[in-house]
Amino acid sequence: MSSTPRAPGGATSRRNMLFGTAAAGAALFAAGCTSNESNESAEESGAAGVADDKPGKKVTIGFAGPQADHGWLNAITTQAKKRAEKYEDVRLEATEGSNDNATQVGQIDTLINKKVDVLVVLPADGKALTQAGLKAMRAGIPVVNLDRVFASQKAYRCWIGGDNYGMGLNAGHFIGEQLKDRKKAKVVELAGVDNLELTRQRTKGFDDALKSYPNIEKVARQAAEFTVESGQSKMSQLLRAQQRFDALWNHDDDQGVGALRAIEQAGRDEFLMVGGAGSKRVMQAIKKDDSVVKATVLYPPTMAASAIDLARALGQGKGIGGMAEFEIPASLTLYSAVVSKENVDQYLPIGFT
């Protein structure tokens, strides 16, 4: 998972489904990314040349991301590739992916040397790969910075990603509403990797939400590592330390697999569990409604598909329609929707495995 800047109804069509499922944030994106160029004047068309599914100018998009060693990261790569395949006019040049900064820099250099039209980059480390983004921009290749933000805005034309603070905030409010009538309610938190900004933002959002519920106290917090093994180990520690609590906020659905193992082994079921990111496994558990899992807060990997749409529009000198401005926004923060039993059928199609 990755750090995010604090931001400089079912759909009927394929495009609307992809953007609509990311709720308000993605709807903003679908409503109006426009390029710096226009094929017709505003007076003639009312828009700056809107991209659609019809084949247009051929565009080669370079895609560079980290190694897909996590369910969410694998979904990012899958979303990007599947989205590119939908377009006859898009050719995707995708790298193998690497968590080694030097290797990823080399992969981006290769894409630059191939003279791709647009570059989509989810850096393993945004700060460490800033120079790679700058190099592409200086070479005249616009960069769509996906999720993990570069250290300089000069390194990308547009940033699109998730809202880590919003994840924690919405998880906290969901739990708060479930427990608002319970006296002296207790909650615990199974966080992600503590030295990552994303983890700190998720915790801050959660803590800020709980301030609205004076009857609720967060009594324990453990940091895991976004892995099944760490989730099981750290959840076991929480369960041993806390004989009773009312709710658990787990930052990541992958580590939640291990957390659920620990919960089942301990025979505990007195609390509700809210996950994070939006895996298909968790959504299915929510739908089945026979475990402690009652909700998950999205960190939608559909952002990668949206990045491909944005890159295609950039390469064709077109917009995506709806906004009055002709320029692509500098940043697009997706909304962290809460998926519960009431709306899980809507979101199941974008749950990742």
UniProtKB/TrEMBL annotation:
<dbReference type="InterPro" id="IPR028082">
    <property type="entry name" value="Peripla_BP_I"/>
</dbReference>
<protein>
    <submittedName>
        <fullName>Sugar ABC transporter substrate-binding protein</fullName>
    </submittedName>
</protein>
<feature type="domain" description="Periplasmic binding protein">
    <location>
        <begin position="61"/>
        <end position="318"/>
    </location>
</feature>
<dbReference type="Pfam" id="PF13407">
    <property type="entry name" value="Peripla_BP_4"/>
</dbReference>
<keyword id="KW-0732">Signal</keyword>
<dbReference type="GO" id="GO:0030313">
    <property type="term" value="C:cell envelope"/>
</dbReference>
<dbReference type="InterPro" id="IPR006311">
    <property type="entry name" value="TAT_signal"/>
</dbReference>
<dbReference type="InterPro" id="IPR025997">
    <property type="entry name" value="SBP_2_dom"/>
</dbReference>
<comment type="similarity">
    <text>Belongs to the bacterial solute-binding protein 2 family.</text>
</comment>
<dbReference type="GO" id="GO:0030246">
    <property type="term" value="F:carbohydrate binding"/>
</dbReference>
